[in-house]
Design goal:
The protein is mainly α. The protein contains 14 helices and six strands. Helix 2 packs antiparallel against helix 13, helix 5 packs across helix 8 and helix 8 packs across helix 10.
Amino acid sequence: MQAEPLTRRGKKGTGEGPAGPENKEVGQDRKQKTQGRAAALLIIPSMIVLGIVIVYPVIDAIIMSLQKDAGLDPVTGSFVAGGFAGLYNYIHWILQQCNTPSGQASCPAGTLGSQFWSATGTTFLLTVITVALETVIGFWMAIIMSRTFRGRSALRAAVLVPWAIPTAVTAKLWFFIFAFDGIANTLFHTSILWTGSEVPARAAIIIADVWKTTPFMALLILAGLQMIPDQVYEAAKVDGATAWQRFTQITLPLVKPALMVAILFRTLDALRMYDLPAIMTAGANGTTTLSILVVNQIRIGFNSAAALSTITFLIIFIVAFIFVRFLGANAVESATNSGKVK
């Protein structure tokens, strides 16, 4: 039998032939590049749509906010077509300055320009109270729904009912409940004019919002609770941990990523609150939020309303950044880290 050439044997011995490790790495690189191109082709159309739907309106609103609104000049009384305003619209809202025949001065009480900081305070007040109550009640509901008992599926379906009802319908429902001769006063034998003063009006909105959106918080927290293995609780019971210790040392730390994401989503939604106060109180008695103020300003001037909506967007963006950067409310990072744990 004739011996094989040394060069051929050498290639087989060293593993540098067609099926060698170097060629496998080259093949994997080509496969990854091909998959990357395919992924890019699939993502690009979505990015274009998002750019049209999200980025373009934001840029257009910023451009509009730098323009003057057409209307009567308070100094001359003649009609002006507008023009470049610079940062005047932002100064108008933040410093609450209005044009008067004698120049710029503080906006008179009752005008939209004088309501920016009060609307901002109302927005954050309603947000903090509603999100806090919804988190506590939603956590309690999620713990109950995570247990095994007869009729659990029916309970979970029933919990979704308030969340499934449109917000406008919910607002009108609670408007009738809190009417002077409504169910609330009849049930508690009171004679409170719920929408007639500041404290009852805000309380009515808070109660309606908590009833409406607590199921949302409960379902998000329930999803986090179901990711916790039962073996962890069983081991803690064997070690003699009490129910409170299991809750504080196991449940809270492990459900924190889902909990923070739920709080983030609900906070951003509450900062845009419009339907409930607009329908229940029409923004009266200290219930005007930033969104209501924007809509009211649109009826007077689009450009000034664009500046206010831009300010509102920046406020919401800053709140979201604080949650993601400092409070750990990062859904993508949490999902990635949980996927790495084996």
